[in-house]
């Protein structure tokens, strides 16, 4: 009887062996999908927004199969918690293999020794790049860049094993620190503050309320609208004589202002992405308003800068740097809000009496500390062995993890549709602040290694840390075991990293990184090392202005937060300030505006009685667009051709 009780308790925890096995089996398929879609056929970029379309598609299939199993084989039916464990695992695997991590790393490791002999470049850079972190075998490089080869040929994959093995350990250590931070913040943000976690509302709804959604007429109405648009537009790409429904890149408002200073405003696309309208509907009103308001705030800054005609200051008014300051401000505010909980964790670690402490609280504190210390120690040892100077790489990693905290907090609290921060990571900013000349003379190894750090700092759209905390929120909502969920996430990161490497090499060896006509191919490697090569061959002195812009953005965002905390009517949110200057917001600003307007009207004239029944409609918009858009994505991969892009164009 005792054994039966323990077994039943284990099954009720939700994180079962079978769901982990399902997740591991689906991860290679997911990673191959991502790499073929984003790198080869360019038939979509699923890892560049907060909700991953391909994972929602797979989740929908699992839910439908599960509904059938409920009638045919009840014993095989998965519980909602098990399905959501699979969802979290697939999201994490997609992060580490996707557009802003693994897809950048693989061409970065191979580009130098592939093109240095051909183009006669990168000689000075190669002198400071550790040989154990790059691929130098010319036969393996030729196979990867010309294609028409097999990854299963030993000569094609063995030279990759050593550098990829070291970078696998690096990714695991990086994520170890992230998960240590997640465990430190989890209780405060999830249980004490009870943040909304808007991004996970869609997977929660379709997993826990599938039957009610499938019976809802508004859901099917919205699903049908979005699906019909995608079907018509997909057929138009295949058969151009057929009509299409223009919803993507209808026009660019900038084209109506061709003269100076108005032409300096930059892109402002008119697009109506159904999934984005649905996703933004779940955002708080103040954030939705702030996103589109500050989008035009940044446009005005650029126009005014052009009108003033500032010379001798390239990049002015440094919009990207100001938004980076907003990210740092959000991280510092999040840490300040959590200070009492962090102090409580400190007392637990010191063994002092703490009121209301549970065994899991103590275990969580020690696991977090172990992950932070272990992962941090490896990062220090790795960076030192690679030739980086501690005076540079320690503040670099501190700034990186501040950005990670900011993204995790803003998604947990408010759920923005995207978070870019292109090309303003701490590596680029430190080179500007210290000066490439100074770094070349004093820290050449660090300057060269900043080429590698580009693979997790080029942009932050598919960042793994917020997905981890969202997993803990799912565990809290469904009463799942946090420790088992943590183990499942660790397995997913390891499996996703390995599967991502394999997928990239398979794609390169089959099609050729240099021979690709559609996807980025060798672009990420060339972009990375061309920038580093300029730092070495034509170094510039320090540029303090971008750093000043970061500080201005930091102070401004803190001011917005202070006003918001003290004035209930204050409409401007610091997160809107931070995320609205990005490339993604150029695509999404109108969707944010539409969602804000509809939600405002519903709440103003109907209140909660009108708002709640409308939720299935916006879920249907997301599902119709993501599911049918993913179908076209798969069709493009199978048929080996470019197809209709439901996102981003």
Give a quick summary of the entry.
With 649 residues, the chain is mainly alpha-helical. It has one domain (14-638). It is 71% helix and 1% strand.
Structure description:
By secondary structure, this protein is mainly α. It has one domain (14-638). It contains 27 helices and 2 strands. It has a two-stranded antiparallel sheet with strand order 1-2. Helix 13 (285-308) packs across helix 26. The protein is globular, with a radius of gyration of 24 Å. The model is unreliable at 1-12 (pLDDT under 50).
Supply Rg: 24 Å
Number of domains: 1
Largest sheet: 2 strands, antiparallel
The residue-averaged pLDDT reads 92
Beta-sheet strand percentage?
Answer: under 5%
Shape: globular
Q: How many β-strand stretches?
A: 2
Per DSSP, the total helix count is: 27
Descriptors for this entry?
649 residues; 2 strands; mainly alpha; globular; single chain
Topology record:
Layout: H1 2-12, H2 17-40, H3 53-72, H4 80-97, H5 102-119, H6 123-126, H7 138-146, H8 154-192, H9 201-208, H10 210-214, H11 217-238, E1 251-252, E2 269-270, H12 274-281, H13 285-308, H14 319-337, H15 339-349, H16 359-385, H17 390-413, H18 426-434, H19 436-442, H20 444-453, H21 464-477, H22 482-511, H23 523-537, H24 544-566, H25 574-579, H26 583-605, H27 607-639
